[in-house]
Every structure is written in C-alpha cells, then in structure tokens.
Amino acid sequence: MINIETHIEEEDHIIMVEGDVDASSSIHLDEALTELANDDSVKFILVDGTQLNYISSAGLGVFMSYIDDFKNKNIKMVIYGLSEKVLNVFQILGLDQLMTIVTDKKEAKEKLHEIQS
Amino acid sequence: MISEKGLLRLSLLFAILCWLSLVLADLFLLFAEINEADAGITKEIPQLLLSLFIILVYFFFKIRIQKAESINFIDLLWHVFSTGLIVSLVQLAVSLFFYLLSDSKLMQNPLMVNFFYHINLGAIIVFLISTFIVWKRLILYQKNKRLLIIWQIFEYSLLATLLYSFFQIGSQQWLFNGLLGVFILYGLVLSFNLKWIAYLNFKQKWRSILLLALVILYLYYFINNLFGFSQEFNLIMDLLDNVFILSIAGFIFLYALISILVILFNLPTSSVFEQKISEVLNFQRLSQSIQKGDSENQVYEVLLESSNNAVFSTSAWLEIHQNGEPYDILKSNITDLKINQVRKSIQDSGIFSYLNKHRANDFQKDLNLNKLTANLNDPDYGSVLVMPLVIQDRQIGLLVVLKDVSDGFNKEMINIISSFVNQACISIENFELLTEVLKNERYREELKIASRVQKSLLPHSLISDKEFEMHAFYESADEVGGDYYDFFKTAEHKTAVIIGDVSGKGTSASFNMSQMKGVFHSLVQFDLDSKAFFTRANHALGHCLEKTSFITAAYYIINSQDKSISFSRAGHCPGLYFNKKEGKAEYFHNKGMGLGIVRNDSFKKFIDISKINYNSGDILFLYTDGIIEASNQEGEEFGYDRLSSYLEQNSEKKSEEIQDGLIKYLYDFIGTENLEDDYTALIIRFL
Lengths: 117, 687
Known about the structure:
The complex is a heterodimer.
Chain A: E1 2-9, E2 12-21, H1 26-37, E3 44-48, E4 52-55, H2 57-72, E5 76-80, H3 84-93, E6 100-102, H4 105-116
Parallel strand pairs in A: 2-3, 2-4, 3-5, 5-6
Antiparallel strand pairs in A: 1-2
Helix pairs in contact in A: 1-2
Chain B: H1 4-34, H2 44-64, H3 73-100, H4 110-139, H5 145-160, H6 173-190, H7 202-232, H8 243-266, H9 270-289, H10 296-310, E1 315-322, E2 325-332, H11 336-349, H12 351-360, E3 373-375, E4 383-391, E5 394-403, H13 411-457, E6 468-475, E7 483-491, E8 494-502, H14 507-523, H15 530-544, E9 551-559, E10 564-570, E11 576-579, E12 584-587, E13 610-613, E14 619-623, H16 625-629, H17 639-649, H18 655-670, E15 679-686
Antiparallel strand pairs in B: 1-2, 1-5, 3-4, 4-5, 6-15, 7-8, 8-9, 9-10, 10-13, 11-12, 11-14, 14-15
C-alpha cells in the first residue's frame, strides 16, 4: 500500500510518501515526480520519508531516474526523515552520494536554501 | 443367455408350433365328436394350447415393440395399422374362399370350417396382442411408480383370466360378464393416460387420428367376423367365450376412441405446444452451441433465428458490437436501407435514449423490459422490441425484432426473447473466458520455457578447488528472476566470483540479468581488477538498461597464490565474512554505487577496491537483498544481524549444511514458502 500527497509550502513542493514502495506502487511515485518535473514553476522539492516503511529496488530506480532530469532543469531535491532501515537501502546502493538525504525537515529546508545560495 | 434376437425367433417358432398343435388337437376332437369316438384327449388340451399360443405371441411382441419415445409415436401407430392390414387381408382371403366355395360340399364340412376359423383366430390374436403392447408403451410413456403399479395389476390379472377358460365347463355367465365388465372399466380408467399426445405436432395429430380410426375399423371388422362364424357355424372353439380376448378387444377399442377424441380436442392448441417445445429446443441450442466448438457467430445466428421464430416476427436484425461500436450486422428479412429507416423510427420512440441512459450507467441497474418495446410510425412495421446483449457491464450487441402489427409484443414474448438473449450472452461469455484461459495457459508455457532458459544461465556446476569449496542456493519468486551469480577461473590461481541483483523482478529483471551475464563473461576474460571491471561494466550497461533500471553487483577475485581476496561493491549488499580466528562474522564496509545509476565517467570515483587475506576455515558469504528483506507476518525483516549471528553459530558446519540450515531458518522466520523476492546465497569456505 502506498499513499502519496503533494503540497506546497512557500516555494517548496513537499511530497509525502507513506507506506511501501514496491514494483507496482512505484508507478505512483513516478507519476508524482513526473508532474513536478514537468512543472516549470517547481524549483524546490522536499521528499518527506518519515512515513516510508519500505522501498524496493524499483522504487529506488524511480528516484535514480530523476537525478539527471532535476539537475538539467535546475530543480533541487532533498529527502528527509528516512528510517534507519530505508536509509540503509539508499546507502548500500550508493544513492546517498548522489542525492541529498538529511534527518529532519528543518535541516532539509536549510540544505535546500544552502544549495541554492 | 440367449440374445434378444434368439428369444424373438424362439418365441415365434413355438407360437407357430402351438398354433399348429391347437389346430390339430381341435380338429382331432371334432373328428372324434362327429364319429362319436373317444378322442383320447380332454377338452382342456386345446385350451392349454390356446393359452400357450397367446402367451408366446405376447412374449414375442413384448420384445419386438420398442419403448415409446417422442419421435416414434407415429411409428408405433403405423405398426398397429400394418399388422391390422395383414390380418384383414388374411381374413378377406378366408371370406373370399368361403364366398367362392359357398355352394360346394366342402363348405359344409365342419372340419374345413373350423380349420379356416383357426386361421382367423390366430391372425386376430396376433393383432390384438400386438396392439395391446403398443397401447401399453403409449400409456407408460412418462410413467410414474403409481401408474406402473396400476398397469401391472391390469396386465397380470388379464393374463390370469387365461386360466378362466379351464373352468368354463360349468359356464357361469354372470362371472364371465362380471369379469369382462371389471376389465373394461379398469381399461377405461387407464385409457386417460395420454401424455404422448402432447408431443405430437399438428401433422402428426392428423395422422394419428387416421391410424386410430383405422384400428377401430379393423377391430369392428374382426369382431364382426368372429360373430359371423360363431352364429353361422358350429365351432369347436369360440374365441367369443374367451374373457381375455374380449377384454383386450374392449380395451383396445376404448383407448383408440378416447385417443381420437383427445387428439381432436387438442388440435386447436397444438400450435402453442409446438411453439413451446421449439422454444425449449432453441434454448438448448443456444446453451450448447458454444460447447460444440462453434464460433461466436453461430451463437448470434441461433439467437436471431430462435428469437424470430419464438415471436413470429416479420423481420429482425442483430447488431454485433466491438469496443462499443457496431461492426457487424445479421439480418433476417430486411435490407440495409430499411434498417436505417427503422432505426430513425426507433430513435423517435425513445427506446435508444432509454438504452443510452443504462449504458452510461454500465448496465448496473436492471432494465425495465416493458420500456424496450414500442409502436413504430413506419409503413411496414407496427411494433418493435429492442434488446441489448450485455456481458457484465459492456454491451456486445443489440437485437431488434420487428412486427407488422402494432402492440405485437406481449409480456410473454418479451420474456422469452430476454431469456434467449441472456442465454446467448452466457454462452458468449463462457466462450470468451475459455479463450482467455487457453491464452493464459499458453503464456504460462512460455514462462516455463523462459524459466528453464534462465536457470541455464546460472552455473551448472560449482567450482571445486583445493583452496575452497562453494555452495549456491537460488530461488526466484516468479517463474523468472533477477538474481545472478557466476564465477570464472581467470588463471590457475585466480577465480573471479560475481553476485548480482537486477532492480525490479520478473520478466524485465530476467532480461537484464542475462545482459549482466553477457557483460561478465566478456569482461572477465581481460583479468581486470574489480574496480576496472565495474567501470567497464557500468559503461556497457549504461547503454542498454532502461532509465529506471539498475543492477547491483559485488565482484570478488580470490587469489590462492597469496591467499587474498580483492573485491569491489557496486551497490550490492555488503559481503559477510566469517573470520575463524576471531570467531566473528562481519560485513564489509566498502563504498559502492549501483551499475547504471551514474551513466558517465564519474562512476569510478564511487567505487572502492578492498583486499583482505583469508585463512583456512574462513567463510565468505554472498547473498542478495531478498534474504535480508524477507519479512514475517508482523512486517519484521530478517535483517543483517540474524544472518551474521547465524553464520557465527554454524561456521563449523559444512557449506551444504550451512546453506540448508539457513534456508530452513529463513522459511521458518517468514512462516510461508511463498517468496516475495528472489533469494540467492553463495557460500565459499576456505580450506
């Protein structure tokens, strides 16, 4: 089961991902990210992973596929609030070296603006 | 056992013998009487022979005349008619003979008269018995237990009256009349079992009336003949004294008479019965047509034809829809031009808009059948009935039935058409489901082949070396999986081992896995170090993996010369290493990056190269994330700690035992053998 909600705080678009992201549910994550990638007004994306219970390789593949896209479009993305288990999955694959992953929202917002400046 | 045919012949033979003996015995008695001599045989002997003859004839026809089926009523009646015809001809011949020789002395001879009487007697008995058996078959058509018992009482007591003849010396007229009266009454009651008549069609009814009337005519002629003989001549044996014969004759007459009357009264309604029967048959055709391997089109044809016949429609057409659009049309007595005209009239009647409303609702609500018929403003047609063909929530067709009179469709007709349409839809749905099952079966077969091919991509036999022993376990969740392991001896003292996992699972993962195998076997030949191997592999795979796909892998080079392992990790789960000296199992902490994630030259900066030395008894345990992420009912993962402590506790065991124990531990933990992911484990123990 997966639940994805997007809302806007000032200039930041926040995607809340809740539940398990596996091969079938990763499609919804992909849809949400595509929508943001195609929206020219979007410059800052925060991924709220506090409710993310599990992510499969297919789910990681979705994040991975947007790294270059976002870089080209000058969109900044920060992931925060991952549980130790989920974070470990990102780390083992090496994605933590390509994406900004922080512990909480406050830090994430700081990181987003630090990158900007 | 004697066959039926043998019994038939035997009874015929004995019947003829009995009749001949009867003739001889009677003539002998008569001769003795005339000459006032002692015949030496009693009067009971001919009676016995007559009874025997009757029983044998009875037995013969009982076998001969088959059971009544709805198709052979007329055949049965025809049989009676033809038997009667032959018997009549015999009697006519005898009469003709008497007529021609009426003046001659010969005819005054009682022996001669009695001889001819016996010919008549035999023929009449044959007719009576055979007709009686036919009547029995007709009465017992669609029998129930009660009817069967009533009939059997009748039949057996009739046969029992054959005994009566033996006691008639004291000829008690009142007993004779009484018995006759009882049997005729009993026969009258039985004569009202006429279920077979309902199954005759109009034409058959007329023929039945004719045949039955002829039976009555025969009977009259025969009985009249018997009376004639009885009155005119002195007979040694008079059939009219026989209760059995008279009762049967009476019964045959009554049944024929009542049948004729009932058929006559049934004539006007027979078309309705025929209609009902044809509806039932059509219904059967609709439900069976698919099973006989016909195509959907044949169901449509049967539907159109049966609906047409069921309501006596003037014209009809059946539109067959595909993806919501009409793509074919079956017509009955109507042209395309006319269809277009009529369609406009139907549009005006509001039926189409009613149907559209239901279609928009996906036919979730039941249709009000009365709203599907309307009167038309058309020169040729007065009324129309429109019935959609719906399977679940999609319309697969539209049946339009037209009549030249207004208000042509009553509730009954609408219901029968609706049932036809429903039955056709069920047939077609079954057909579709069956086709789908067959298709899926084919896919399953293909997958089985794919699974076999994929298994063959993994090493067939594991390497055995002086330096180490190896054990592997592989299980995929689907028919095909995305896990991969392999090894290659690059030199006498060097073995390269790879374990990998393709993102996603199932078919797409298995394709990428086979690419990984290709990459491994191409690059391993160059004897590269693990970092160079991954850099080139990433480059190669970057060109062929989809945007969202990646592969994690770990590459180990075991060098038995300096007892070392050098290795790199490309995003794969860190290897577990058991150090015997320390008695501890630990995961490697080297940096890494999955293949296909960074598709440019910067990839190499994410890859570390590490090297350790091994000692005898150490274990290198390689695995895929399926093992770590396997979770139990509570959602708890098997995890890294369970795996490492398992290895520590079981390090002394043989590789095979470690592997088997781990699999059991894992399955016990998740509580089922339904895999969520692919599992691979590779155990390398250094000797």
